Structure prediction request, 142 residues.
Amino acid sequence: MYETVLFPTDGSEGTEAALENALNIASTYDASVHALYVADTNQYSTTTLDDGARDVLVEEGEDIVGDVVERAQARGVDVEDVVLQGDPYETILDYIEEYGVDLVVMGTHGRRGVERYLIGSVTEKVVRTADVPVLTVPLADE
Prediction:
């Protein structure tokens, strides 16, 4: 049913449940997991990021997906670690299309009401616009 499961992560506290779901699904369907971190270089559009600042963002992402790789390998799940730069929402959608992702597993803060509309959410945007199923998992309390 699923061959490629995408697990986009920003390293937030509480993403354990989302990762566990991604790994369980991958184990069940003998699928691979793509652990994706997007260094949000667009959030700094009002200032210019020098190469050093970009390197810090990328290194942070490498550490985050490295932890996912260790967990997946310990469970015998094939895993790809990917760190990209750009707008997280757009980069995730592009990745889904380019790599033929079958399922996306993402954590969500579960904001409600006005806060949801004011703050926005990468997960919310992906849910609304992705052409593949997106499993949202509530983040654990910090």
The chain has five helices and five strands. The first strand starts at residue 4 and ends at 8. Residues 51-74 form the longest helix (24 residues).
